[in-house]
Amino acid sequence: MKQGVQVIVPGSTANLGPGFDTVGMAFELYTKIRMEVSDEPKVVLYGDDLKGLPTDRSNLVYKMAEYLFEKAGLTLPPLRIQMRSDIPLTRGLGSSAAAIVGGLVAANYLAEEPFSKDEIFQMASHIEGHPDNVGASLFGGIVVAVMEEEKVPYIKIEPKSSLKALAVIPDFMLSTEKARGVLPEKYSRKDTVFTLSHAGLLIASLASGRYDMLNTAMQDRVHQPYRTALVPGMGTLLDKAHEYGALGTALSGAGPTIISFLEGNDERLKQFFVDTLLQNGIGSTTMSLMPDLHGARISEDIDTPF
Ligand SMILES: Nc1ncnc2c1ncn2[C@@H]1O[C@H](COP(=O)(O)OP(=O)(O)OP(=O)(O)O)[C@@H](O)[C@H]1O
Ligand SMILES: N[C@@H](CCO)C(=O)O
């Protein structure tokens, strides 16, 4: 067994409008995890972003190591896990997916790689319940995936180097569980066809680099209309961001972050985002984001200070 490893995992946006539970895109925004065999179990958290998370075996990353070792039929030794993250927690930028992918990838390395990357993807998708964020975190770029019983077939698309994003992150958390709880069980044929056809156009637009189509393509009727009530100002942001230079805009994952894609300067859009949320009584911060093209990466360097 290997004695230690460091893994860097990108955060991501999921859905991009109509690609609900299907499409994810990774960003240069990272969770860093160092996992080492130790005398006793311990999780050490650095920085403000991870404040409040468990520092014992109940931490999600620790649980992923336990899960992977059990699946491999191995006994997990006590681990010391150190972690820091730039991904805001519970805001729709894939923090849980990055933790799941990071824990599995690090533990797989310690266990001498009993599982392939595709098998890790399957595990991560089933644990998270959908493949969109975990696919982007694991593989980087834009990942389109479908979840079947046994397999999770996917295709990775590389965005053009001109494509970037602007995220506005409201000053409140919204758990994925709560944001999924407001969705209906059934949809009309009209809303299903609307969303299917826009999802098709979204993938064609991303695969061909026809980003001029994104504003039309990123509309959906499966989740955003039901989640609007959870994020004051969201309706205005989705309707009007195009007028401030956005190519297309959506709720990021389960929210509350809203994300726009763009190719030019984002100053006007930033102001519009912050002002609109403020008018709705919500403070926020913005992040200019570049796509991450590589996904989770392993480093054997566990000697430099964390
Ligand atoms: N680095 C981490 N270590 C341990 N647990 C984490 C870590 N990051 C996230 N989590 C867990 O995941 C929860 C957030 O998951 P949730 O799915 O609600 O939000 P998200 O992943 O940030 O957003 P979204 O899925 O919409 O992109 C946190 O409350 C915490 O329990
Ligand atoms: N596809 C998921 C992403 C958040 O985990 C959702 O929108 O609920």
UniProtKB/TrEMBL annotation:
Catalysed transformations (reactions): L-homoserine + ATP = O-phospho-L-homoserine + ADP + H(+)
Keyword Repressor: no
Superkingdom of the organism of origin: Bacteria
Domain GHMP kinase N-terminal: from-to ranges: 59-141
UniProt-annotated binding residues for ATP: P88, L89, T90, R91, G92, L93, G94, S95, S96, A97, A98
Metabolic or biological pathway, per its Swiss-Prot or TrEMBL entry: Amino-acid biosynthesis; L-threonine biosynthesis; L-threonine from L-aspartate: step 4/5
Keywords (A to Z) from UniProt: Amino-acid biosynthesis, ATP-binding, Cytoplasm, Kinase, Nucleotide-binding, Threonine biosynthesis, Transferase
Pfam family, one: GHMP_kinases_C
InterPro entries: GHMP_kinase_C_dom (IPR013750), GHMP_kinase_C_sf (IPR036554), GHMP_kinase_N_dom (IPR006204), GHMP_knse_ATP-bd_CS (IPR006203), Homoserine_kinase (IPR000870), Ribosomal_Su5_D2-typ_SF (IPR020568), Ribsml_uS5_D2-typ_fold_subgr (IPR014721)
Localization in the cell: Cytoplasm
Any one GO MF annotation of this record: homoserine kinase activity
The GHMP kinase C-terminal domain, residue ranges: 203-268
Enzyme Commission number, as recorded: 2.7.1.39
SUPFAM superfamilies membership: GHMP Kinase, C-terminal domain, Ribosomal protein S5 domain 2-like
HAMAP family: Homoser_kinase (MF_00384)
Biological function: Catalyzes the ATP-dependent phosphorylation of L-homoserine to L-homoserine phosphate.
PANTHER family: HOMOSERINE KINASE, HOMOSERINE/4-DIPHOSPHOCYTIDYL-2-C-METHYL-D-ERYTHRITOL KINASE
Family that this chain belongs to: Belongs to the GHMP kinase family. Homoserine kinase subfamily.
Name of the protein in its database record: Homoserine kinase
Source organism of the structure: Ammoniphilus resinae
